[in-house]
Amino acid sequence: MDSTLCPPMQFMKHFSAIPDPRVVGRSSHKLFDIIFIAVCGSIAACDDWKTIGLWAKAKKQWLRKYCELPCGIPSSCTLRRFFQHVDPEAIQEAFIGWMGEMREVLGGQSVAIDGKTLRRSFNRADGKGAIHMVSAWMSANRMVLGQIKTEEKSNEITAIPQLLRLLEIKGALVTTDAMGCQKDIARTIRKREADYCLAVKENQPSLFEDIQTTFEETPESSMVRHTTRDEGRGRIELRSYTLINDLSHIRSADEWEGLAGVVRVESHRFAPEGNTSETRYYISSLGRGIRRISKAIRNHWGIENSLHYVLDVTFKEDGSRIRKDDGAENMATLRRLVMNFLNNARHLKLSIKGRRMAAAFDDDILENILGF
Q1: What is the pLDDT along the chain (372 residues), one digit of tens a residue?
Q2: How far apart are CA 187 and CA 154, in angstroms?
Q3: Number of alpha carbons in the 13 Å side-chain half-sphere of residue 364
């Protein structure tokens, strides 16, 4: 990493290299300026091109500190057209390249893979369904490592290996929900020199049955256990994690690359509104380290609570009407990029929404979030 560059310049080094979709000689605004304005406007609580354009006009003097602006502030229409036509794959490549410099070494950390549908991104006029974005989430730092678009949720099965091949995940423990429990995904993770912990449900009926049999037939002395207890708001949740390395009852064990153990999680929740219990099963390439496995399983739900929920509630992603050409996909990537900037500003004792609002009103806080 070039240590002479501050974080926003590291970011712009990657994003300024993307191919410019505009006609040569007819581009009055600098590519750097357009991308920088879009990122800063989104940090400053703007969720569409119109409000980003209005914010940029109000912040013209501040923007001149970092942008050339040879023809003034680009209009909201200019921003919209640019992001409709810029290559989303080039944006993804720049994003992943930037995160490759910004992230810490992943050894020992967990990476959750999960998808989210942009509910209003469908375009009936063009016959396009809603976009489904599959993201890789680094739980410890609350950072999106990368994402890839699919047309439907069912396509996650083919999208996840594509995303994993783009990422540097060596040493990480990758988790997925039951849809990601596929042999090709396990194989791809191992080839990327990472480990996996994949949820198993009835979509893999034989494997699910074999795991249940394993726990019924294996003596207690051959099980490794770990128990956690969480309390809060009058609720108590007990979780018991059990790991078995004996795979003799797993008929397809040889077909799962690197399979070393099966895991059972028994959850018991005691709350004023009622008590509930749940049992879940997993397969893992880790044959030891039940505490690490338990932490990764628990952290997997962070992608729902800390990424998907925030994108919907704070960035209003599900309500976004951006849909023409590649605009929806590129805006989705922009949101996740901005999430990384905001989550990296943990020294600001504010919620993500609070950090965005503070950045909108205070240029010093915006610069602080950017890393200047």
Answers
A1: 344 445 566 777 888 889 888 877 667 899 999 999 999 999 999 999 999 999 999 999 999 999 999 999 999 999 999 999 999 999 999 998 888 776 655 566 899 999 998 866 656 556 566 788 999 999 888 899 999 988 666 678 999 999 999 998 999 999 999 999 999 999 999 999 999 999 999 989 999 999 999 999 999 999 999 999 998 888 999 999 999 999 999 999 999 999 999 999 999 999 888 899 999 999 999 999 999 999 999 999 889 889 999 999 999 888 777 767 788 889 999 999 999 999 989 889 999 999 999 999 999 999 999 988
A2: 19
A3: 1
Tell me which residue of 41, 120, 44, 43 sits closest to 79, measured CA to CA. Answer: 41
Q: Which two tokens stand for residue 240?
A: 């018991």
The dihedrals phi and psi of 133, each to the nearest 5 degrees, come to -105, 125
Q: What is the largest CA-CA distance in the chain?
A: 75
- How is domain 103-309 classified at the CATH fold level? Transposase Inhibitor Protein From Tn5; Chain A, domain 1 (3.90.350)
Q: Are 114 and 308 in contact (CB under 8 A)?
A: yes
Concatenate the DSSP letters of all residues of 97-147 into one string. Answer: HHHHHHSPP-TT-EEEEEEEE-TT--BGGGTB---EEEEEEETTTTEEEEE
Coil, helix or strand for 42?
Answer: helix
HEC readout, 272-299: CCEEEEEEEEEEECCCCCHHHHHHHHHH
Q: What is the dihedral of CA 257, 250, 222, 276, to 10 degrees?
A: 100
What are residue 310's DSSP bridge partners? none
246 class by beta-carbon count within 10 Å (0-12 exposed, 13-18 middle, 19+ buried): middle
Neighbouring residues of 135: CB distance < 8 A, sequence distance ≥ 6: 113, 114, 115, 116, 144, 146, 147, 303, 307, 336
Which amino acid is residue 128, in one-letter code? K
Domain residue ranges of the chain, discontinuous segments joined by +: 7-98+325-370, 103-309
Here the tokens at position 239 are 């979780």
CA–CA distance, 303 with 286 (Å, rounded to integer): 22
Question: For residue 301, what are its two tokens?
Answer: 């739900």
Residue 370: which residues within 8 A CB-CB, separation 6 or more?
Answer: 7, 8, 40, 43, 341
